[in-house]
Design brief:
- This protein is mainly β.
- It is about 0% helix and about 50% strand.
- The chain has no helices and eleven strands.
- Strands 2, 4, 5, 6, 9, 10 and 11 form a seven-stranded mixed sheet that branches. A four-stranded antiparallel sheet has the order 1-3-8-7, with no helix packed on it.
- The protein is globular, with a radius of gyration of 13 Å.
- The N and C termini lie far apart (about 40 Å).
């Protein structure tokens, strides 16, 4: 089963930026879509964005225009560039692929 490891979370002020990474094990990484989800305290996990095997991307309305999802198949890694961050973006961010979840990385947006 694929294993996913997220990194790049942290504390940032409103309006700031962070770049999350998710690196996958295995040689079939390029064949599958990758997803980012997030879960804020006391809320259900929600879908954020998808990148498919051809590189097409899809975004939740709440992040459209602020987040950019990209993939580097040679490195088995995807990147989530998050700009103009808002306090409501605070959550644990998880990547998902082939039915597997990463362990999550905390993003906190606060002054």
């Amino acid at each position: 089963q694929v294993q996913l490891v997220e990194s790049g979370g942290g504390l940032v002020q409103p309006g700031g930026s962070l770049r999350l990474s998710c690196t996958a094990s295995g040689s079939r990484f390029a064949l599958y879509p990758i997803y980012w989800y997030r879960q804020a305290p006391g809320k259900q996990r929600e879908w954020v964005t998808t990148i498919n095997s051809s590189g097409s991307t899809y975004y939740a309305d709440s992040v459209k225009g602020r987040f950019t999802f990209s993939r580097d198949n040679a490195k088995n890694t995807v990147y989530l560039q998050m700009n103009s961050l808002k306090p409501e973006d605070t959550a644990v961010y998880y990547c998902k692929s082939q039915g597997a979840w990463g362990q999550g990385t905390q993003v906190t947006v606060s002054s």
